[in-house]
Specification:
Blueprint: H1 3-27, E1 31-37, E2 45-49, H2 63-71, E3 78-84, E4 90-99, E5 105-114, H3 116-129, H4 156-171, H5 180-193, H6 201-209, H7 213-231
Antiparallel strand pairs: 1-2, 1-5, 3-4, 4-5
């Protein structure tokens, strides 16, 4: 970013500080408002009001933030979604991408509301009025029946570790049990989450998987090459000519 863009981003963040504090004060203990600065992705939290996720200024973005960072200026707002913290809190959240006047995405303004108690009351009222379970055997609570846990942490390494562990769990196999194609797929999925948009992510992933950094970089390169090949029109070479 140029000096003028940085200055504009700094001004927006400064203007949002009292807005964050005002929203958190209005909604009380059930609300947390966070401002992220994508220019420092490993320590993106620059303003935080309220305490639902245990983070402080200098803390890390979640995997949701990493995905927005990966998408760059094309990143869309994420509105009215539900996550669950490792402590079991159910959060209803909205994330608005912050942009300069030329459209450059430089951060995010996030509002988290703790709806744990409201969800429990909703379920209780459903029991009392005899709400019929849906096709999947779940009551219509207004919240997805299964909400994945989102890791919120002051340390970006914790978020990276959680992403790696979650994908291994989804595979149903540990790294040593995966064949080469499955290993490339795991790295492709990690890449798609935006994990590798932050510094030190590749060495951290390597350490979590118990492989060398060189191997991790090789698998990431392989995954990106496969993705590029899939996106290339049939009958063309890597340089764009006829095969």
């Amino acid at each position: 970013m140029g000096a003028s863009v940085n200055a504009e981003a700094d001004a927006v963040i400064a203007a949002l500080r009292p807005v964050a504090e005002g929203l958190a004060a209005t909604f009380g203990r059930s609300c947390e408002v966070v401002v992220h600065d994508f220019r420092t992705p490993e320590n993106s939290v620059v303003v935080i009001a309220g305490d639902l996720t245990g983070r402080a200024v200098g803390g890390s973005m979640s995997a949701i933030g990493m995905d927005l960072l990966r998408q760059g200026d094309a990143a869309p707002d994420r509105l009215n979604y539900v996550t669950r913290t490792p402590a079991g809190r159910m959060l209803k959240s909205s994330t608005v991408v912050l942009r300069t006047s030329d459209g450059t995405a430089f951060g995010a303004f996030c509002v988290n509301l703790d709806i744990t108690a409201l969800t429990q009351v909703h379920e209780l009222v459903g029991d009392l009025v005899g709400v019929v379970p849906g096709a999947a055997g779940q009551r219509a609570t207004g919240v997805a029946a299964v909400v994945p846990t989102t890791t919120f942490s002051n340390e970006v390494d914790d978020v990276v570790d959680a992403a790696v562990d979650g994908l291994q769990l989804a595979h149903g196999k540990q790294w040593a049990q995966l064949d080469r194609a499955e290993r490339a797929e795991l790295f492709a999925r990690l890449d798609a989450t935006g994990v590798f948009a932050v510094r030190r992510a590749v060495p951290r992933v390597a350490a979590r998987l118990g492989i060398s950094r060189a191997s991790a970089y090789a698998y990431l390169s392989d995954a990106r090459k496969r993705a590029a090949d899939r996106g290339r029109a049939p009958g063309t070479s890597a340089k764009g000519g006829s095969a």
